[in-house]
Each structure stands twice: as structure tokens, then as C-alpha cells.
Amino acid sequence: MTTQVLNGLAVEIDGEGEALLCIHGLGGSSNNWTPVLPALGGFRRIRPDLPGSARSPLPADGKGLSIDGYVDAMLRLLSALDIASVHVMAHSLGTIVAQHLAARSPGTVKSLALFGPLAAPPDAARPNIAARANTARGGAAAMQEIADAIVKGATSTQTKEQQPAVLALVRESVMRQPAEGYAQSCAALADAQSAVLERLDVPTLLVTGDQDGVAPVANVQAMQARIAGSRLVVFEECGHWTTFEQPQRCMQALEAFYAALR
Predict the structure, then answer these.
(1) Does 134 map to a domain?
(2) Is 52 left (phi over 0), alpha (psi -120 to 50) or beta?
(3) Residues facing 90 on adjacent strands
(4) Number of structural domains, the chain?
(5) What span, in angstroms and rounded, lies between the C-alpha atoms of 46 and 77?
(6) 226 class by beta-carbon count within 10 Å (0-12 exposed, 13-18 middle, 19+ buried)
(7) Is 25 domain-assigned?
(8) Where is the AB hydrolase-1 domain (predicted)?
(9) Which one of 112, 113, 194, 258 has the fewest CB atoms closer than 10 angstroms to its CB?
(10) What's the pLDDT at 262?
(11) Is 153 domain-assigned?
(12) Confidence at residue 106, expressed as pLDDT on a 0 to 100 scale
């Protein structure tokens, strides 16, 4: 694996074949995709840390993070790599970015594989997400509290009972985020609006867990109804951190999805 810094973003780039852009979610990093790499052997995998997340600093222009800003960053990254079209895989907040990318630049995106997908946060959830942004600015101790709450609320009962290493991984992923970057990421999510999903015209895979409270099955079914020809897969005994909690099932779903495209 090769880590580069492009346009201020830390990016892991490896493999050969068609380009695949992997966009993590809130509290994530390029490592959200490490568990499923064996299923992606036929791709040139491009795995950035989003602005303000993990190893990537906040934008130098001082502007607050936003969905449009994330899309701009992804388009600049693809331009720097001289990539005209790309498959896109995303998780959580990253799925909103991916949908807006596909809607804004339809010739750029070849397909969408979306894990724990959401079109936008429910209105009832927005104040809590905004409040989390303020909490995060409390620093390391606050980030630990947020991480512990996410481990408790966003993983399945079975994961909590049977996969302690996954709990540690989720906790570490969130706890090591830069506090201000995470706060601005929360603010971007709290303000996110849905792309016009009816305009998406690429093969789309939607994957969620039956215990995913962020992307409940009913909400993802509503997304499926808005995206023509999209396919929905629901994992049993799985929460929101899909690629960490159920990597084997994720790989099976990805292999089937990409095999159908070839």
C-alpha cells in the first residue's frame, strides 16, 4: 500500500484496474475499507481520509466542512490522479457525499456501493448531531465519551457480545479523530440535504444491517425506491459499522455486485 498526500489529503492508493474511490464516514478513515480489500483485487483502490478526518487536516482556506466541500475535494483528487470516471464505494456520511458526487457529475461515477447509507439525516436527529459537534470541541476526554457512546449505540448486540476487537476498532477510529475536524464533520452531516436520488442512473448497491439505527432498513428501503434499479442487501445481526462487523458478508455482496457489472 502507498500513502500519498494529494491536495492536502492523505490517500492510500494500491492495486491495478478500474479506479475505485472509497469514501469513509463520520469518525472513519481509509481503514474502513481494509477488511474488504480481498474482494477488490481487480481495482485501483483510492482510499482518502476526508478533510478534517484521521490523517487529513482541515482545508487550508479556513472554510467549514460541508457536503459540497467534500464533493469538491473528491473531484479535485480525481483530477490530480487524471481519473475521468470511477466506481464509488462509501459508508455512512460518505454515502451522502457519493450520492451528491454522482448527481452533480453523472459522467464521473460508474457505480455506487453504499454501506449504512442515508440520503440525509432525519430532521429529528439533526439537533443531536449538531450537539455532538459542540461536545467534540471539549478535546480528548470528550472524544473518548463520544467514541464510547458510538460503540454502545451503533454496533449490534451480537458484535458487542462476540467481537470485542471490533468494538476496540470502532472506539479507536472515533477516539483518534482530531477534535475540531470531527466537530466540523458533525456540523456538515447535521446540515446535509438529500441529493436528487431519482436522477441517479448508475448500478447501485445498498447494504445495511438489521440493527443499524443510523440507516434503518425502512429508511434504506425508501432510498431503494428512489434509485431506479438499485439493489438492497440486509445483514442479520449487524449494526452501522458494516465493514468492521460483517466483513465476509460485505465481501460477498461486493463480489456479486462487481461481477454483475463486468
Answers:
(1) no
(2) left
(3) 23, 114
(4) 1
(5) 9
(6) middle
(7) yes
(8) 19-246
(9) 194
(10) 82
(11) no
(12) 87
